What we know:
Number of strands: 7
Helix content: under 10%
Mean pLDDT: 88
Number of helices: 0
Low-confidence stretches: none
Largest sheet: 4 strands, antiparallel
Radius of gyration: 12 Å
Order of helices and strands: EEEEEEE
Oligomer: single chain
Structural class: mainly beta
Amino acid sequence: RMTVTTNSPEASFTLTDENGKQIQKGSGMTTVFQDLKPGIYFLSFSAPDNSYYLPPKTEKVMIRKYQDAAV
C-alpha cells in the first residue's frame, strides 16, 4: 500500500509501473493506492492550473513485500 499526502486539494496523481503501464490514479490531499505488488513504481503529479499549484517532479518508489510506502 502507498499513501500519498499533499498540501493541495487540486493535486492529481498517476501511478505507473517501471514499464510505463498506468496502475492507478488518485487526487486530493490524501490518496491510498492499495493492492500493489512488490516492485518499482513512478508517481507523477499534476494540477488543473499550474499557475496556482506547481506539481513536484515524478518520484520513483520501491514497494517491498509486506511494506507500506508514504510519499
